[in-house]
Amino acid sequence: MAKNNYQTPTGMHDLFQKDLEQFAKIEQLAKKIADFYGFEKIETPILEFSEIFEKGTGLSTDIVEKEMYSLKTKGGDFLTLRPEITPGIVRSYNQGGMQNLPKPVRLWYLGPCFRHERPQAGRYRQFNQLGFESLGVGHSIIDAITIQIFYSLLKSLGFKKLAVEVNCIGDSQCRGAFRKALTNYLRAKSSSLCADCRVRLKKNPLRVLDCKEEKCFMVKKNAPQCLDYLCKDCSNHFKGLLEFLEELEIPYTINPYLVRGLDYYTKTVFEIIEDTEEGKAQGSLAGGGRYDGLVKLLGGKDTPACGGAMGVERVVNLIKARTKSQVIDEPSCDVYLIQVGELAKKKALKLFEQLRQANIKTGEGLHKDSLSAQLGSADKMKAKFSLIIGQKEALDNQVIVKEMKTGRQKNVDIDKVIKELKGKI
Ligand code: HAM
């Protein structure tokens, strides 16, 4: 059906109770982990100055080049709906003087991001990221703990087949030599690259390694690897990380062509996917790495940092596929309240409130008049008991309590019915 203005914009979705329950569960789990590791929750604005993404995420990234929702305010400011949250966290770290806090400064967040991408399985234009960032410490043990956090969060959410990919993409010292070697190699093969990658080759050749086009994939296969160009510091850092991951018994593979599509990474990069057909279709569940230059780039002091973010919708999609749960549950109840006649309706309305206060899950058809229609609803909602107030019961201040399974029923005084039910539900 053609889109009209009375539908959600392309790539954006309504979230229903079932989704929101999963979101809440994920958030609860994340909070538990965050509390244990000493992360504090932070919420940054959804709109930030465009410049922090242009500078931070990087001008030559797909995100900044093609995917940002940007606007000029009536006051003349250029703002962007955040396509990711890390630059906002760094902005807040600098703005809030957090560099004076004991290190590492550990922050976590959950909130919406916006990218004008071509929608497909697991790829939306509005989606939520759950992230953990540690600022102020350059040791590789922080990188290992970051990966461990996402790995154990996903494990606790029931993901059994996880694949963790890691790589080291060097720093300002050694990246230059690798970039040169890669550029030379790609130049010689430029006729075999896709049109986008021919442009990337000029602006940012590392991005070519990120391309998913089949023809570029073939070129990438024999490209120089950054691991062969690492300086001593980066090489030791990577070795340290791998040893920590082994100690933590996190099964990882080294993907020498993993570069990730954001410009701020230095040294470690990682991604976690579910290693199943459905999982691969969704794409990475979480990704991140070290970004030792970003705090300074956005106006702060030279500060190492590391973090990652998880796509909440992708995780929820896979949990839903696994549990085959429906989007909206059929409503159900423990008792169903039935009334016939005007006086009974009034008595039922009062009893309905008493049932709510007693925490008894109650279905009702207070707007209905027909007994059989209400009994039908009680069946549909799988009520264990129906409470029936007819005209006679209303006059006698009584309720018929009917056990739906056996059909057995008895009259109970209206003010004793809650006590009567409490023992049975
Ligand atoms: P990213 O890889 O661009 O990294 O996104 C992190 C995660 O967000 C992905 O692994 C994926 O699960 C989810 N995601 C990304 N784009 C979409 C989309 N269009 N639809 C649905 N889910 C999506 C970052 O954003 C970095 N800020 C991560 C980071 C934090 N690095 C260091 N600290």
Task: Provide a descriptive summary of the structure in words.
The protein has 425 residues and is α+β, with helices and mostly antiparallel strands. The chain folds into two domains: 252 residues, BirA Bifunctional Protein, domain 2 (2-Layer Sandwich); 88 residues, 3-Layer(aba) Sandwich (Rossmann fold), CATH 3.40.50.800. Helix 5 packs parallel to helix 9. The chain is elongated. The model has no long low-confidence stretch (mean pLDDT 94). The site of histidyl-adenosine monophosphate has 26 residues, from strand 6, strand 10, strand 11 and helix 12.
Q: What order do the helices and strands come in, and which of them pair?
A:
Layout: H1 17-37, E1 40-41, E2 47-49, H2 50-58, H3 62-67, E3 69-72, E4 78-81, H4 86-95, E5 105-114, E6 126-135, H5 140-156, E7 162-168, H6 175-188, H7 195-203, H8 214-220, H9 232-247, E8 252-254, E9 266-274, H10 277-282, E10 286-290, H11 294-297, E11 305-311, H12 312-323, E12 335-339, H13 342-357, E13 362-364, H14 371-380, E14 385-389, H15 391-396, E15 398-403, E16 409-413, H16 417-422
Parallel strand pairs: 1-5, 7-8, 12-13, 12-14
Antiparallel strand pairs: 2-4, 3-4, 5-6, 6-11, 7-9, 9-10, 10-11, 14-15, 15-16
Helix pairs in contact: 5-9
The protein binds histidyl-adenosine monophosphate.
The site of histidyl-adenosine monophosphate (HAM) has 26 residues, from β6, β10, β11 and α12.
